[in-house]
Structures are given as structure tokens and as C-alpha cells.
Amino acid sequence: MESLFSFVKGDQPFSEHYIRSMHMQFTAHQNHTEAVTADGKITKIPLLKGKYKEQPNNPRRPGGEMHEYCPPEFVNDEMEKLVRVYVKSENSMPPEVLSAWVHHRFTQIHPFQDGNGRIARAIASLVFLKKGLFPLVVRESDRRDYIIALEKADAGDIEPLIKLFSKRQRDSILAALGIQQQVIQAKHSEQIISSSLALLVAKSTAKKKQLSSVVAVANELQSVAKSKLAKLQADLDSELRRIETHGGETFNASLKKAENGEKESYYYQRQIYEVGKIHDYYVNLDRYKSWTRLIIYTDKIFEIVFSVHGHGRGDNGVMVVTGFTFEKIPSEDSGTESTNTKPCSQEIFQFNYLENKNNIINRFNEWIDDAITIALAEWQQTIT
Question: In terms of pTM, does the model score above 0.70?
């Protein structure tokens, strides 16, 4: 980290020497790496720390084909070109574009015998850090999209990788805004001590009005969710009712929505808390809770639910949308009970009162389309 921030402060230029030094630090406690011999056997070879590879390091894909990286004899030339293009583009190219390019180009070269992934993500982070942004974090849940984006970049289309890096940066910024808002709220006690009662009331009223703006956005997002599920319900219901069943029952799909404050808005609390644990955040249902659900009736009952509620403790102006699915099965008391609750998104959708409303809605449209696709795939699994 000291080395990374030394570069950010301008004490270290971006160079081959800097990259090799970084590799030496990252592999300080790694002395060997695995390699495959000509006859297909796995063997251990000494790891060259801070030195470019002397042997090919081409992996074999699951399908059996060989993925070729830059041959050892061309690594010096290709790394020299990478550094030259980076330095030339550092101040003229948007950080998300430059970060994606340098990450992908470095990955294509794969200059070291091992540790290339770590270095690739580190130098991609440097681009963002240099612009006052956040380090690149590729989560385990991003792995599939990350690999696909790299493969598309290999084929000449780097846009998916740029979008993935932009999404991770955006999420880091939103998370920081949420933390910042909690800090601001915590500092109110100091203001209370130093303010008169009249000033306190005035500020409290203004703050409540400001924070309440996020509720209006929450209502709009729930309307978007209902609109998308309503279209899906209409298409599904029409097709399901045409299916002839052995028992004469009618397959169908129905839609329902519960606004904040309505009695039914308390439904699905158990599932919401379950999903909250999976996504590791504090579920707050005290101030706002609404949901939209799609129920698919076949020989089984399958529900898709999108819930809008608070994030974190107190009235902090930060809210989320979560999506989840579950099945309903007969219970011992002749009723039904829910089972197999699963989130239908890789991450929650988080928004707050500081963000522009149009930007929130645009992000939400992209998020909920992906979530509905995952939910329908989960429904398909219950049919097979």
C-alpha cells in the first residue's frame, strides 16, 4: 500500500521498474509456482520475483484449447509499449477507460510466471487512485462477468470491461456517500449542544425535508418495478392459461403491490431479513417499506418480490431495493409456507437523497432488468 500511494503522490513514475518492484513485493512470501510439463504433469518451478518470465505460461481452458499469452522473448518490447501508451494517455483518457485498457493489455502480455492477476488489478487501481477515486475491487460475485469481459476484450470489444470497472467504482462511491451521511448524522449532537432550541427545531425541520426527498424516489422506483412486473405478468398469464393440465386446474400469474404505510406492507419481513443477512447489511423497516410481487401459479407456487426499505440505522436518507424469490409449499395446518428463499440479484440496489433522481432511475432500470432475468431463471429451475 505504501508503494501504491507513493505512486499516487507522484514520488514514483509509472515504469517497468516500478511494475517489477511491485511484483517483488507481492510475491515476497511465494517461492514457487506450478507449471505443466510437456507430458501433462504438474510440477513446481522457482518463482522469478520481480523478473519477467523465461518460460511460456499459457493456460489450458476447460474445453482443452490453449490460451496463449505473449511469448517470453517479446515481453520486454510489449511491456515497454504498455508503459509508453499509459504515460501518453494518463492525462487525456477517462480513468475508467485507461484502467480497463491497461488491465487488459497487461493481462494479455502476462509478463510474469505467476502473480499477473494481482499486478493487473493493482495497476488498474492506480489509475483510479491517481484521480482521487477508489481502488478497483473485483468481487467473487463478479468473477463470471469479469472473465467474460476479458474474453470480449481479447476479441476487440473492451466496452464490457469498462462498464464493469465503472460499476465497481460507482458502487464504491455510493457506499462512501452512505458512510459520509452516517458521519454527518453523528455530528448533529455537537450542533445540538451549541445551538439554541429554536435553531435546533429549524435545522431539524429542514433536514427532515431534505431526507424525505429519498422517499419520493423510493415511490418512483416501486412504480418502475410494478410496471416491469405488470408487463411480465400479462405475457405470462396469457401463455399459462393456454396450457392444458391433467387435473383441469388453470395456470396463471398475478401481480400485487403494497405501498408504504399500508397494512400489507409488513408482509415478507422474514424473507427481507434473510436476504439482508446474505447481502450483509442492516435492514431498516421503521420508516419506509413497500413491495411489488409477481406470483406464478402452476403445479407449484413461485413468487418474485421486490422490496424497498431503509438501509442502516436511523433516518439517514439511504435506502435499498432488494429482490428475492421463493416457493410456497403445503404446510401441516392445510395452509402454505414459504421455502427456498433466494436473492435474485448479486447485490442490493442502494440509493440516497444526495444522488440525482434521474441517475438513480437509470441505474435502477439496469439493475431490475438483470434481477428479473435471474428470478425467471430460478423459476425455470423449479419446473425441471
Answer: no
